[in-house]
Amino acid sequence: MSGLVSAKHLSENNMEPIVFEKVNDIGGQWRYTDKTDVDEHGLPIHSSIYKNLRTNGPKILMTFPDYREFHGENRSYIKHETVLEYLTNFTDHFNLRQYIKFNTLVERISQLPDEKWRIETRNLNLNKIEVHTCDAVMVCDGHFTKPNVPSIPGIDTFPGRTLHSHTYRRPEEFAGKTVVVLGASFSGIDIGVEVSKYAKTVYLSHRHKKLTVELPKNMIQVPGVVAASGSDLILSDSSRIKADVFLMCTGYLYDYPFLDDNSGITVTKGKYIHPLYKQLVNVNHPTMVFIGLPHPGFPFVVPYVQVRYFVSLLRGKAKLPSRDVMLKESELPPGTPVSRAHFMQREVLDYYDNLAKLAGIQPISKKLRHLIDIYLNDLNNNPMYFRENELFMRDGEVIYIQAKRS
Q: For the whole model, what pTM was predicted?
Protein backbone atom coordinates (compact mmCIF):
# COMPACT_ATOMS: atom_id res chain seq x y z
CA MET A 1 0.00 0.00 0.00
CA SER A 2 2.93 2.38 0.57
CA GLY A 3 4.06 2.10 -3.05
CA LEU A 4 0.54 2.52 -4.40
CA VAL A 5 -0.30 5.64 -2.39
CA SER A 6 3.10 7.07 -3.33
CA ALA A 7 2.45 6.54 -7.04
CA LYS A 8 -0.99 8.14 -6.74
CA HIS A 9 0.16 11.38 -5.15
CA LEU A 10 3.32 11.73 -7.21
CA SER A 11 1.39 11.34 -10.45
CA GLU A 12 -1.30 13.76 -9.30
CA ASN A 13 1.41 16.36 -8.73
CA ASN A 14 2.91 16.13 -12.21
CA MET A 15 5.80 13.88 -11.21
CA GLU A 16 6.76 10.62 -12.90
CA PRO A 17 6.69 7.66 -10.52
CA ILE A 18 8.38 4.38 -11.38
CA VAL A 19 7.28 1.59 -9.05
CA PHE A 20 9.50 -1.49 -8.92
CA GLU A 21 7.61 -4.61 -7.79
CA LYS A 22 9.30 -8.00 -7.59
CA VAL A 23 6.12 -10.12 -7.98
CA ASN A 24 3.64 -10.14 -10.84
CA ASP A 25 0.75 -8.19 -9.32
CA ILE A 26 -0.12 -5.57 -6.73
CA GLY A 27 -0.85 -6.19 -3.05
CA GLY A 28 2.50 -6.78 -1.39
CA GLN A 29 1.98 -8.28 2.05
CA TRP A 30 -1.74 -8.70 1.36
CA ARG A 31 -1.22 -11.09 -1.56
CA TYR A 32 -1.64 -14.41 0.24
CA THR A 33 0.18 -17.54 -0.87
CA ASP A 34 0.30 -21.06 0.53
CA LYS A 35 3.99 -21.09 -0.32
CA THR A 36 6.38 -20.46 2.56
CA ASP A 37 9.85 -20.88 1.09
CA VAL A 38 10.63 -19.36 -2.33
CA ASP A 39 8.67 -18.09 -5.32
CA GLU A 40 8.94 -19.07 -8.98
CA HIS A 41 12.12 -16.98 -9.30
CA GLY A 42 13.80 -18.62 -6.31
CA LEU A 43 13.36 -15.51 -4.15
CA PRO A 44 12.10 -15.67 -0.55
CA ILE A 45 8.32 -15.41 -0.19
CA HIS A 46 7.38 -11.87 0.75
CA SER A 47 3.99 -12.30 2.42
CA SER A 48 3.55 -13.34 6.04
CA ILE A 49 -0.25 -13.45 5.77
CA TYR A 50 -1.85 -16.62 7.10
CA LYS A 51 -4.94 -18.31 5.71
CA ASN A 52 -7.57 -17.20 8.23
CA LEU A 53 -6.17 -13.77 9.01
CA ARG A 54 -8.63 -10.97 9.66
CA THR A 55 -7.41 -7.44 10.14
CA ASN A 56 -6.73 -6.30 13.68
CA GLY A 57 -7.82 -2.80 12.67
CA PRO A 58 -11.36 -1.72 11.75
CA LYS A 59 -12.18 -1.20 8.10
CA ILE A 60 -12.12 2.59 8.27
CA LEU A 61 -8.46 2.44 9.31
CA MET A 62 -7.70 0.02 6.47
CA THR A 63 -8.36 2.64 3.79
CA PHE A 64 -6.65 5.77 2.57
CA PRO A 65 -8.46 8.97 3.59
CA ASP A 66 -9.02 9.98 -0.04
CA TYR A 67 -10.50 6.64 -1.15
CA ARG A 68 -12.94 4.88 1.19
CA GLU A 69 -14.56 2.53 -1.35
CA PHE A 70 -14.73 -0.88 0.29
CA HIS A 71 -16.63 -3.84 -1.11
CA GLY A 72 -17.27 -7.40 -0.04
CA GLU A 73 -17.75 -7.40 3.73
CA ASN A 74 -20.06 -5.41 5.97
CA ARG A 75 -18.29 -6.23 9.24
CA SER A 76 -15.61 -4.00 10.72
CA TYR A 77 -12.73 -6.50 10.89
CA ILE A 78 -12.24 -8.01 7.48
CA LYS A 79 -10.46 -10.87 5.72
CA HIS A 80 -7.13 -10.33 4.00
CA GLU A 81 -8.82 -11.08 0.67
CA THR A 82 -11.03 -8.02 1.16
CA VAL A 83 -8.01 -5.80 1.79
CA LEU A 84 -6.40 -7.07 -1.41
CA GLU A 85 -9.61 -6.35 -3.30
CA TYR A 86 -9.59 -2.79 -1.92
CA LEU A 87 -5.98 -2.28 -3.05
CA THR A 88 -6.82 -3.67 -6.48
CA ASN A 89 -9.77 -1.29 -6.80
CA PHE A 90 -7.61 1.61 -5.60
CA THR A 91 -4.95 0.77 -8.19
CA ASP A 92 -7.40 0.53 -11.05
CA HIS A 93 -9.50 3.54 -10.00
CA PHE A 94 -6.45 5.80 -10.17
CA ASN A 95 -4.91 4.02 -13.17
CA LEU A 96 -1.69 3.22 -11.33
CA ARG A 97 -0.62 0.06 -13.17
CA GLN A 98 0.94 2.19 -15.91
CA TYR A 99 3.66 3.21 -13.43
CA ILE A 100 4.49 -0.27 -12.13
CA LYS A 101 7.28 -2.51 -13.41
CA PHE A 102 6.26 -5.98 -12.24
CA ASN A 103 8.66 -8.92 -11.84
CA THR A 104 11.41 -6.41 -11.19
CA LEU A 105 13.86 -6.80 -8.31
CA VAL A 106 15.75 -3.79 -6.98
CA GLU A 107 19.34 -4.89 -6.52
CA ARG A 108 21.20 -1.66 -5.76
CA ILE A 109 20.36 1.94 -4.94
CA SER A 110 23.27 4.37 -4.84
CA GLN A 111 23.63 8.13 -4.95
CA LEU A 112 25.35 9.81 -7.86
CA PRO A 113 27.66 12.87 -7.56
CA ASP A 114 24.89 15.18 -8.80
CA GLU A 115 22.59 14.03 -5.93
CA LYS A 116 20.42 11.95 -8.24
CA TRP A 117 19.91 8.25 -7.56
CA ARG A 118 21.08 5.26 -9.58
CA ILE A 119 18.64 2.33 -9.37
CA GLU A 120 19.90 -1.02 -10.60
CA THR A 121 17.12 -3.56 -11.14
CA ARG A 122 16.78 -7.07 -12.53
CA ASN A 123 13.95 -8.06 -14.85
CA LEU A 124 13.20 -11.46 -13.33
CA ASN A 125 11.46 -12.85 -16.39
CA LEU A 126 14.35 -12.00 -18.70
CA ASN A 127 17.13 -12.12 -16.09
CA LYS A 128 18.23 -8.76 -17.45
CA ILE A 129 19.87 -5.89 -15.54
CA GLU A 130 18.40 -2.43 -16.10
CA VAL A 131 19.64 0.91 -14.77
CA HIS A 132 17.45 3.91 -13.99
CA THR A 133 18.26 7.43 -12.81
CA CYS A 134 15.78 9.15 -10.50
CA ASP A 135 15.52 12.44 -8.64
CA ALA A 136 14.12 10.90 -5.46
CA VAL A 137 13.65 7.48 -3.87
CA MET A 138 10.76 6.29 -1.73
CA VAL A 139 11.48 2.96 -0.02
CA CYS A 140 8.08 1.26 0.28
CA ASP A 141 8.89 -2.43 0.71
CA GLY A 142 7.34 -3.03 4.13
CA HIS A 143 8.80 -4.60 7.23
CA PHE A 144 6.97 -7.88 7.87
CA THR A 145 9.09 -10.17 5.72
CA LYS A 146 12.47 -10.89 7.32
CA PRO A 147 11.83 -12.94 10.48
CA ASN A 148 13.45 -11.96 13.75
CA VAL A 149 14.67 -15.38 14.89
CA PRO A 150 16.07 -15.28 18.43
CA SER A 151 19.23 -17.16 19.30
CA ILE A 152 18.20 -19.96 21.67
CA PRO A 153 20.99 -22.25 22.90
CA GLY A 154 20.31 -25.89 22.14
CA ILE A 155 17.34 -25.29 19.85
CA ASP A 156 19.04 -27.44 17.20
CA THR A 157 18.53 -30.44 19.53
CA PHE A 158 14.75 -29.92 19.68
CA PRO A 159 13.22 -32.86 17.77
CA GLY A 160 9.85 -31.21 17.11
CA ARG A 161 8.84 -28.73 14.47
CA THR A 162 10.32 -25.23 14.70
CA LEU A 163 8.93 -22.34 12.68
CA HIS A 164 8.45 -18.58 12.65
CA SER A 165 5.08 -16.89 12.20
CA HIS A 166 6.31 -15.77 8.75
CA THR A 167 5.75 -19.34 7.54
CA TYR A 168 2.62 -20.06 9.58
CA ARG A 169 -0.42 -20.60 7.36
CA ARG A 170 -3.10 -22.95 8.81
CA PRO A 171 -4.02 -23.99 12.39
CA GLU A 172 -5.24 -27.46 11.35
CA GLU A 173 -1.61 -28.53 10.97
CA PHE A 174 -1.28 -28.52 14.77
CA ALA A 175 -4.26 -30.71 15.64
CA GLY A 176 -3.62 -32.69 18.82
CA LYS A 177 -0.18 -31.15 19.30
CA THR A 178 1.40 -29.36 22.22
CA VAL A 179 2.54 -26.02 20.86
CA VAL A 180 4.78 -23.39 22.43
CA VAL A 181 4.14 -19.92 21.02
CA LEU A 182 7.04 -17.60 21.80
CA GLY A 183 5.93 -13.97 21.99
CA ALA A 184 2.75 -12.35 23.31
CA SER A 185 2.37 -9.35 21.07
CA PHE A 186 -0.46 -9.10 18.53
CA SER A 187 0.64 -12.00 16.29
CA GLY A 188 1.54 -14.26 19.22
CA ILE A 189 -1.86 -13.89 20.84
CA ASP A 190 -3.75 -14.01 17.55
CA ILE A 191 -2.00 -17.11 16.22
CA GLY A 192 -1.96 -18.76 19.64
CA VAL A 193 -5.72 -18.35 20.00
CA GLU A 194 -6.29 -19.72 16.49
CA VAL A 195 -4.02 -22.73 17.05
CA SER A 196 -5.68 -23.45 20.41
CA LYS A 197 -8.87 -24.46 18.57
CA TYR A 198 -7.02 -27.51 17.22
CA ALA A 199 -4.01 -28.09 19.48
CA LYS A 200 -4.06 -30.13 22.68
CA THR A 201 -2.28 -27.39 24.61
CA VAL A 202 -0.80 -24.02 23.70
CA TYR A 203 1.87 -22.51 25.95
CA LEU A 204 2.07 -18.75 25.46
CA SER A 205 5.69 -18.06 26.38
CA HIS A 206 6.80 -14.48 26.97
CA ARG A 207 9.02 -12.32 29.15
CA HIS A 208 6.45 -9.75 30.25
CA LYS A 209 4.03 -9.59 33.15
CA LYS A 210 1.29 -12.18 33.03
CA LEU A 211 -1.53 -11.03 30.76
CA THR A 212 -4.82 -10.44 32.54
CA VAL A 213 -6.93 -10.68 29.38
CA GLU A 214 -9.18 -13.65 28.69
CA LEU A 215 -7.51 -16.52 26.84
CA PRO A 216 -8.70 -20.01 25.79
CA LYS A 217 -8.77 -22.62 28.56
CA ASN A 218 -6.07 -24.70 26.86
CA MET A 219 -3.77 -21.69 26.42
CA ILE A 220 -1.36 -21.41 29.33
CA GLN A 221 1.00 -18.51 29.97
CA VAL A 222 4.58 -19.42 30.91
CA PRO A 223 7.86 -17.48 31.16
CA GLY A 224 10.02 -16.97 28.10
CA VAL A 225 11.96 -19.83 26.53
CA VAL A 226 15.69 -19.26 27.05
CA ALA A 227 17.19 -22.61 25.97
CA ALA A 228 16.40 -26.09 24.73
CA SER A 229 17.68 -29.52 25.60
CA GLY A 230 16.27 -32.20 23.36
CA SER A 231 12.48 -32.19 23.69
CA ASP A 232 12.68 -29.97 26.80
CA LEU A 233 12.21 -26.23 26.37
CA ILE A 234 13.82 -24.42 29.31
CA LEU A 235 12.07 -21.32 30.64
CA SER A 236 13.55 -18.24 32.30
CA ASP A 237 12.47 -19.50 35.73
CA SER A 238 14.47 -22.74 35.08
CA SER A 239 11.32 -24.83 34.71
CA ARG A 240 10.90 -27.09 31.67
CA ILE A 241 8.09 -27.97 29.32
CA LYS A 242 7.82 -30.55 26.55
CA ALA A 243 6.25 -29.69 23.21
CA ASP A 244 5.75 -30.96 19.69
CA VAL A 245 6.00 -27.53 18.05
CA PHE A 246 7.98 -24.37 18.79
CA LEU A 247 6.35 -21.44 17.02
CA MET A 248 8.20 -18.11 17.19
CA CYS A 249 6.01 -15.01 16.99
CA THR A 250 8.99 -12.77 17.58
CA GLY A 251 8.45 -10.09 14.98
CA TYR A 252 10.46 -8.96 12.01
CA LEU A 253 13.62 -7.06 11.11
CA TYR A 254 14.03 -4.06 8.85
CA ASP A 255 16.21 -5.14 5.97
CA TYR A 256 17.54 -3.11 3.02
CA PRO A 257 20.19 -5.21 1.25
CA PHE A 258 19.82 -3.05 -1.86
CA LEU A 259 21.09 0.15 -0.22
CA ASP A 260 24.62 1.15 -1.16
CA ASP A 261 26.94 2.35 1.61
CA ASN A 262 26.73 5.87 0.19
CA SER A 263 23.01 6.02 0.97
CA GLY A 264 23.92 7.44 4.37
CA ILE A 265 21.57 5.06 6.20
CA THR A 266 22.51 2.74 9.07
CA VAL A 267 20.34 -0.15 10.25
CA THR A 268 21.13 -1.11 13.85
CA LYS A 269 20.28 -4.69 14.84
CA GLY A 270 17.63 -4.76 12.16
CA LYS A 271 15.42 -2.56 14.31
CA TYR A 272 16.56 1.06 14.10
CA ILE A 273 16.95 2.93 10.81
CA HIS A 274 18.86 6.19 11.18
CA PRO A 275 19.34 9.05 10.79
CA LEU A 276 15.72 9.73 9.83
CA TYR A 277 13.85 12.98 10.34
CA LYS A 278 10.20 12.47 11.31
CA GLN A 279 10.71 8.68 11.07
CA LEU A 280 10.84 9.32 7.35
CA VAL A 281 13.47 11.53 5.70
CA ASN A 282 17.08 10.40 5.20
CA VAL A 283 18.93 13.23 6.95
CA ASN A 284 22.10 12.65 4.93
CA HIS A 285 20.27 12.63 1.59
CA PRO A 286 16.78 14.16 2.02
CA THR A 287 15.56 13.03 -1.41
CA MET A 288 15.27 9.53 0.04
CA VAL A 289 12.42 8.59 2.37
CA PHE A 290 11.20 5.39 4.04
CA ILE A 291 7.43 5.05 3.91
CA GLY A 292 5.49 3.19 6.60
CA LEU A 293 8.22 2.37 9.15
CA PRO A 294 6.23 3.05 12.34
CA HIS A 295 4.65 -0.06 13.84
CA PRO A 296 2.54 -1.87 14.96
CA GLY A 297 -0.60 -0.36 13.54
CA PHE A 298 -2.25 2.09 11.13
CA PRO A 299 -0.60 0.75 7.96
CA PHE A 300 -2.77 2.94 5.70
CA VAL A 301 -2.98 6.08 7.84
CA VAL A 302 0.76 6.60 8.33
CA PRO A 303 1.90 6.09 4.69
CA TYR A 304 -0.80 8.45 3.45
CA VAL A 305 0.35 11.43 5.53
CA GLN A 306 4.05 10.62 5.00
CA VAL A 307 3.61 10.63 1.23
CA ARG A 308 1.63 13.86 1.30
CA TYR A 309 4.37 15.51 3.36
CA PHE A 310 7.18 14.29 1.09
CA VAL A 311 5.33 15.46 -2.02
CA SER A 312 5.04 18.89 -0.35
CA LEU A 313 8.81 18.84 0.22
CA LEU A 314 9.49 17.93 -3.41
CA ARG A 315 7.21 20.72 -4.60
CA GLY A 316 8.87 23.25 -2.30
CA LYS A 317 5.69 23.87 -0.33
CA ALA A 318 7.22 22.44 2.83
CA LYS A 319 10.76 23.07 4.05
CA LEU A 320 13.15 20.95 6.06
CA PRO A 321 14.85 22.40 9.15
CA SER A 322 18.63 22.52 9.46
CA ARG A 323 20.66 19.32 9.36
CA ASP A 324 21.54 19.71 13.05
CA VAL A 325 17.87 19.91 14.01
CA MET A 326 17.05 16.84 11.93
CA LEU A 327 19.96 14.85 13.36
CA LYS A 328 18.93 15.74 16.90
CA GLU A 329 15.37 14.57 16.32
CA SER A 330 16.53 11.32 14.72
CA GLU A 331 18.33 10.23 17.90
CA LEU A 332 16.76 7.69 20.20
CA PRO A 333 15.57 9.21 23.49
CA PRO A 334 17.84 8.15 26.39
CA GLY A 335 16.98 4.71 27.66
CA THR A 336 14.91 3.74 24.63
CA PRO A 337 15.82 0.26 23.31
CA VAL A 338 16.36 -0.04 19.57
CA SER A 339 13.35 -2.36 19.40
CA ARG A 340 11.16 0.64 20.23
CA ALA A 341 12.81 3.04 17.80
CA HIS A 342 9.88 3.05 15.40
CA PHE A 343 7.11 1.98 17.77
CA MET A 344 3.93 4.03 17.60
CA GLN A 345 0.43 3.34 18.78
CA ARG A 346 -1.51 6.29 20.19
CA GLU A 347 1.52 8.41 19.32
CA VAL A 348 0.46 8.06 15.68
CA LEU A 349 -2.30 10.62 16.21
CA ASP A 350 0.03 13.50 17.07
CA TYR A 351 2.57 12.28 14.51
CA TYR A 352 -0.08 12.40 11.79
CA ASP A 353 -1.29 15.85 12.78
CA ASN A 354 2.25 17.23 12.86
CA LEU A 355 3.04 15.97 9.34
CA ALA A 356 -0.41 17.03 8.11
CA LYS A 357 0.22 20.57 9.29
CA LEU A 358 3.60 20.67 7.53
CA ALA A 359 2.02 19.20 4.38
CA GLY A 360 -0.91 21.60 4.46
CA ILE A 361 -3.62 18.93 4.70
CA GLN A 362 -6.40 18.20 7.18
CA PRO A 363 -5.47 16.71 10.57
CA ILE A 364 -7.25 13.73 12.10
CA SER A 365 -10.73 14.77 13.15
CA LYS A 366 -11.85 14.62 16.78
CA LYS A 367 -14.41 11.97 15.85
CA LEU A 368 -11.80 9.74 14.20
CA ARG A 369 -9.50 10.24 17.21
CA HIS A 370 -12.35 9.04 19.39
CA LEU A 371 -12.85 5.98 17.18
CA ILE A 372 -9.13 5.17 17.38
CA ASP A 373 -9.20 5.43 21.18
CA ILE A 374 -12.10 2.96 21.33
CA TYR A 375 -10.33 0.63 18.93
CA LEU A 376 -7.01 0.61 20.81
CA ASN A 377 -8.76 0.01 24.12
CA ASP A 378 -10.63 -2.93 22.58
CA LEU A 379 -7.50 -4.33 20.92
CA ASN A 380 -5.38 -4.21 24.07
CA ASN A 381 -7.98 -5.39 26.57
CA ASN A 382 -10.05 -7.84 24.56
CA PRO A 383 -7.68 -9.71 22.20
CA MET A 384 -9.89 -12.80 21.90
CA TYR A 385 -13.12 -11.11 20.99
CA PHE A 386 -12.56 -7.55 19.76
CA ARG A 387 -13.10 -8.58 16.14
CA GLU A 388 -16.67 -9.59 17.00
CA ASN A 389 -17.49 -5.97 17.79
CA GLU A 390 -18.48 -3.37 15.21
CA LEU A 391 -16.71 -0.02 15.02
CA PHE A 392 -17.33 2.44 12.21
CA MET A 393 -18.51 5.94 11.34
CA ARG A 394 -21.96 6.76 10.01
CA ASP A 395 -22.94 10.29 8.99
CA GLY A 396 -19.86 11.62 10.77
CA GLU A 397 -20.66 9.86 14.06
CA VAL A 398 -18.75 7.02 15.71
CA ILE A 399 -20.77 3.80 16.03
CA TYR A 400 -19.55 1.12 18.43
CA ILE A 401 -21.54 -2.07 18.90
CA GLN A 402 -20.33 -4.75 21.30
CA ALA A 403 -21.23 -8.27 20.25
CA LYS A 404 -23.30 -10.37 22.63
CA ARG A 405 -21.52 -13.47 23.83
CA SER A 406 -23.18 -16.54 25.26
A: 0.95
